[in-house]
Batch of 2 targets.
Target 1
Amino acid sequence: MSDCLFCRMVDGEIPADVVLSTDRVLAFRDINPQAPTHVLVIPKEHHRNLGALAAADGELLAEVARAAHAVALQEGLVTDGGIEPGYRVVTNTGPQAGQSVDHLHLHVLGGRGLGWPPG
Ligand code: AMP
Ligand code: ZN
């Protein structure tokens, strides 16, 4: 989709600070980080939100989830087999949740204490 920001980042038309890339998944740093680690994990194929990807390709959704955990490991937010210090995965769907880019992305957040409930 040529009018999709994240598809354009996958295609290399817009620069991305990439931290992980596989055949089907890309992870890059958020341009407006909300925590010391704030990485977005996306399928390279366009799916508009979590429900759309879950319906279309469950294996790809699992790959995105595995990549989110791999990023957390890479960033030192957890250790192999451990859960310390920890991290949060968020995905927004729709305007009330604050979704601003209609290409599924998991926010991986960590590196500071994260309040609950979120805003
Ligand atoms: P959401 O509001 O949940 O749809 O998240 C979209 C995220 O994309 C926001 O956290 C933005 O800061 C981030 N973002 C927007 N443009 C870029 C960009 N060019 N590179 C990296 N992150 C971006
Ligand atoms: Zn897209």
Target 2
Amino acid sequence: MQIEFPPLQNDTILRAARGEVTSHVPVWIMRQAGRYLPEYRALRATEEFFTVVRTPELATEITLQPIERFPLDAAIIFSDILVVPQAMGLEVQMIKGRGPVFPEPLAHPDDLKRLVEPDVKKELGYVYDALTLTRKTLNGRVPLIGFCGAPWTLMAYMIEGGGSKTFSKSKSWLFKYPKDSHSLLQAITDVLIDYVIAQVDSGAQLIQVFDSWAGLLSPRAFNEFALPYLKQIATALERERPEVPKTVFAKGAHYALESLSEAGYNVVGLDWTMDPRQARERVQGKVALQGNMDPCMLYAPPEAIRQEVKSILQQFGEGGYIANLGHGMHPDHDPEHARVFIESVHEFSQKEHMSL
Ligand code: CP3
């Protein structure tokens, strides 16, 4: 059964994702809902991270916080990539000052027996409810982005048990236990495919896949252990829900830009280490691009941010472009500097400015 939603009033991000030239460049920011916002910190003072994620009313409230403040062109559902490992049977805690921690990570291929094949409708139902409530509450103001972690990034967390400097435990699995690694990656991919399709059915209007740890891999390891699974997700979404554009953000994967532009996604997200003009040349118009201002640029004075935005817009050029940072907001960023970024993207990309 299809849910009825209010008509969309601003579809610039969806059209830019399809490569179109739009009246202005659409902009959103990774981690636009988060600790740099005082209203987020106020809510988190009394509620656990995963309680917020699992309570649709709270997830909706936080998703809308940056939308109420700034003229953003998209909302992204407040959730986390680690809800999928949780649904597959692993416990994940969010520890203040440390980030996510898995008390019992996968230590050996024998541990794969501990994973369950989840009924995603049941185990992740709270995400779908949050998407539906948020989409209704947005009332068509801007599109709602759904997301998931990429198979390799999720595998890395499931084995590492949290963040790590070298990720040597998860990377050594690839080389010590390649067969088991592929079984794990395939099991994660199967869950993710059901998960993102159900996100679309619940209200997501664009899906972004975060491969945050792609940059840890050699090109050869990426081609064997990351890319085929990213392709499976894009292919399944294209087959099942072709109306919804798809973005892949593989942080640090410079070497993979050409292959990512042919992996079935509409948009490729870039981190700040990549040159926009070279990236445009390398993808040959096959995909739209998203990014890529260095998040640390937001510590600069407003006028410096404005000049950087102007330069980035010129370098990406017209059409098929979604402005964003090259990674997420930091907790100590000044919200007013995020506003400068967002507003100057709009100001400098309005049609009459492009010819100046
Ligand atoms: O606004 C948004 O972007 C939507 C919400 C969102 C969160 N996590 C909320 C969150 C999204 C899209 C994510 C994705 C996510 N989660 C990624 C991929 C993006 C990336 O940053 O590379 C990853 C790797 C995670 C795993 C994760 N969750 C980590 C490593 C951490 C701790 C690091 C940190 O920034 O604190 C989290 C916690 C987390 N997820 C927070 C938020 C707002 C902060 C938690 C808090 O409130 O204490």
